[in-house]
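Standup notes
- DV: blocked on the single-chain target, sequence here:
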Amino acid sequence: MRIATKTIYDGVKFNLAQISEALNKANKVASTGKRITTLSDDPVGLVQSLHIKSDLSNIEQMGRNITFGKSWLVAVESALSQVQDLISDAKSLCIQMSNASTSAEQRVLASENIRNILEGIASLANTEINGRYIFAGSETDTAPFTLNGNAVTYNGDDNVFAVSIGRNTKVQLGFDGNDIFRPSGTGADDDIFKTLSDLKTALEDNSPGVIKEAMDKLDVHFEHISAKISSTGSRMVCMEMKEKIFQDLELTHTERISRIEDADITSAIMDLKQKELAYQAALASSGSVMKLSLIDYL
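- DV (later): unblocked, structure below
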């Protein structure tokens, strides 16, 4: 039984198309280094890869939260350390000014230094990072403290905010400014601003007794700020531990995706060479077939 010329031609075209498609796929794998680029390449592998990428996306978000949180906590620790330095300066000045040999004029001059210290602490209490105030509770877009003469008012709230650093794990970043600078239950009757304001007045009034009382209050404020710095450090340690965990997870997930999606380059190049040879052979064979005419079948 003779086979129709059209049937032969159609068969040749079909075989060439299949070999050409295989060659294109082999070339794509070799050039991209990826064995999976579409669902048809490996449906199961692609689904696994997508799930891992979703987990990786969550890990990357947690990483961004941690980076933000660390920068926030660094700003807090820096500001509070500077507040401690100013409290120490005030304490040193008190020691000098409580000396019986100190004159009234010297104490009046020293009162201006205390005024500068008060303003410096008020400024640090309004520290901001990226336009957000770190001691305003959840009201981070509002300057928490306003200095009016020797009085300081608090404009923030006591609702601190936190960032997520893992499933069901959050770390508080925000700080209630009242708790930092106007603490209750610390043993000091006054907040740091009133202590300094009263000290300034005592120096102006030449009252050594009140100056000595301020020294004890400054010690309490110093220890309170120390506790807050320690708390900030603990939060930073938590952040850094989580950061290390997420870095390891990110590396593991990336390697898993690579094992699923990436091709063996050596094998891919060998396969490409084989497909090229097969394609060239098919072209040569097809050329011979296509030259046949009706006379060749008579």
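- Follow-up: The longest strand covers residues 162-166.
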